[in-house]
Amino acid sequence: MAKKIILLLLPIILTMGCTSNNTPPELTPEQSNFTQTSTYHDVVEVVKYARKNAENMHYQIFGHSEMNKELPLLIFSKRGANTPEKAAKLGCPIVLVVANIHGGEVEGKEALLRLVIDLTQGKYQSWLQKITLLLVPIYNADGNDKISRKHSMHQSGAPKGVGMRANAKGLNLNRDMMKLASSEAQALVQNVLAKWDPALFVDLHSTNGSPHGYHLTYAVPLNPNTDFRIEQFQRNVMMPTLRKQMDKKGWNIFPYGNFETNQPEAGYYTFRPMPYFANNYAGLRNRLGLLSETYSYMDFEQRIAVTEDFIKSVIRFIVRHSRDVQDLLADLKEDYVHYSDSLQAGISYDYTREPCDFNLLISDIDTVYKENSNKKMYKRTGIKDTVASKLYNRFRITAWRSVPFAYALDNRTGAYDHILKNLSMHGIHYFISDLKQKAKVRQFEIDDLERTGKTLQKNSIQKIKGTFNTDYISLHGWVIIPTSNTNRPLIFQLLEPEAEDGYAARNMLGDIFASKPFPVVKVPEPVKLK
User: Fold this and answer.
1) Where in the chain are the domains?
2) Which helix (H) or strand (E) holds 85?
3) Of 193, 231, 515, 486, which Cα lies nearest the Cα of 336?
4) Which of 11, 104, 259, 467 fits as disulfide partner to 152, beta carbons 3.0 to 4.6 Å?
5) What is the pLDDT of residue 17?
6) Is the whole-model pTM more than 0.90?
7) How are beta strands 438-456 and 57-64 bridged, if at all?
8) CATH fold for domain 7-335
9) CA dihedral sign of residues 25, 27, 31, 37
10) Residue 6, beta-bridge partner list
11) Residue 379: how many CA atoms within 13 Å on its side-chain side?
12) CA neighbor of 483 nearest in space, from 246, 311, 284
């Protein structure tokens, strides 16, 4: 009798085991009634579930954090695009969504985990015929786990604490897209952006700035050196469509900005167009970029919900416009292989002189005190007012310089091996010249160097002014960096001596006053250098 009972129970036990394997882990916010956020371990559990159960997902470790945590890249495709080469051959847009670049801004991470579970359970499979989807649910893995009630104190929600903004070395990963000082940024740029070359890079944040009335704000590439076709597509086609889609879901979204609390009518200003920001960096790679900033004075549950809806709306847009996106990228690729000696780009920028008039929504904010602390927490309760204001979210170039056929770096002593390493991580092609005869170059001479006293990512910043003089020198043994490719705007920004966020400004060329002549020259016109 006992044997019969055991045999009868065995199928039930096996069935229960299968159900358990296919049941997704309960996410931390829901499990805690939205008082806690997911740890790195919690994220790994969701990834393990997806690896076991998702039919169309491929898993990669794209790098490691400073504390040696594995950084997961989840690749979703119904057409077998499990490598960059296979994805490129499909001729479909690659979409990259990165969450948790700041460890204290957590709703993007939670929204991506929901999406991973949905995709694993078979939802949205039609997307994967039209695009290859890359998800990085936890980028700043170390910062995420430094959970404390003292972090992001003004946020409404996750009262048991969130992670810290910086990584384990104290570096801000959203200021490190150019120098690549952190192991995380090196891995993302070298192993994801340069290799997979996504058509769209979405970077998820939360903001606790001025009390505007929008559930979520966004920014497209802001640097005015971004190709006008990218700007027009995103500003005139993509974002108006997304705003309508989000409005239908009950969410009010608008371009990112801040204003003086007592003077909202004076202007609503976006952030600077510096290339070290992820959305701006994408634009300089001639790709679409999108920053998402969920409003952190909303409660935690709402913040996750609006982020989730925004991500899905963005993906649906690219799916529906996949041909338009691929045609845009093809046009850019074709145009940038050609060089003209009339090309120019900007080295400095300022806000537009022609801001747009618009009606700014102002939130009604309650001030409460966090439990066991005297710190204020702000909570959005609705719309308080509408104010006529001016929108400053475009920039103009204030100083221009010519774009050369190529840059040449004198690294014959190996003094700038670190620059070559940086170029390689960005995916920028270079070679060593074996041309022995002299070539025409534009040599830079420093007229003024200002040690600003400011630092960025623990690195001193300097402002450089100078003049270019024509010379004829041998470039034999020099490193040649051609500009006739889609990375041209990025190459210009890195190597142009007076550029605001280049190697010289970031003090990466050493004591350039002592390095006479300046170690980077311009090759102004097409010449065979190899």
Assistant:
1) 7-335, 350-396, 403-523
2) helix 84-90
3) 486
4) 104
5) 34
6) yes
7) unpaired
8) Aminopeptidase (3.40.630)
9) positive
10) none
11) 15
12) 284
